[in-house]
Design brief:
- By secondary structure, the chain is mostly beta strands.
- It has one helix and nine strands.
- The strands form four sheets. A three-stranded antiparallel β-sheet has the order 2-1-3, covered by helices on one side. Strands 4-5 form a two-stranded antiparallel ribbon.
- The longest helix is centred in the first third of the chain and has 9 residues.
- It is elongated, with a radius of gyration of 18 Å.
């Protein structure tokens, strides 16, 4: 079983479906599903072996990186070019406490009484 993402004209994922494995029956299933829908179609995988991340609705397909990139959570976060994951400009503390990102101060704020 394989999964395929349909993209709008801005390369934003609008839907993900289950389909046939690429090359099964000698068919290019990305092309087939894309032609059937009249949209660009790209294969995705749960384990991230294809295109960095499993595509979700709202993700962006970056053709240059051949990767699905999740939506950016905060304006200050920076895309890690290797992992295609948005990262905060300041790493979250790793002291075992719980934190929330405060975009206005661009700092991690400890969550009390969790």
């Amino acid at each position: 079983m394989a999964h395929y993402a349909f993209l709008d004209s801005n390369n934003i994922v609008t839907e993900v479906i289950v389909g046939r494995h690429e090359g099964e029956d000698g068919v290019d299933w990305e092309q087939y599903y894309g032609n059937f829908r009249g949209q660009t179609c790209k294969r995705t995988s749960y384990n991230g072996n294809i295109r960095k991340h499993y595509a979700g609705i709202g993700y962006t397909y970056d053709a240059g990186r051949d990767a699905f990139i999740p939506p950016k959570l905060f304006a200050s976060w920076i895309l890690n070019e290797t992992t295609c994951v948005w990262e905060p400009p300041t790493p979250m503390p790793t002291n075992g406490k719980q934190y929330l990102w405060d975009e206005s101060t661009k700092l991690w704020i400890e969550v009390a009484n969790v």
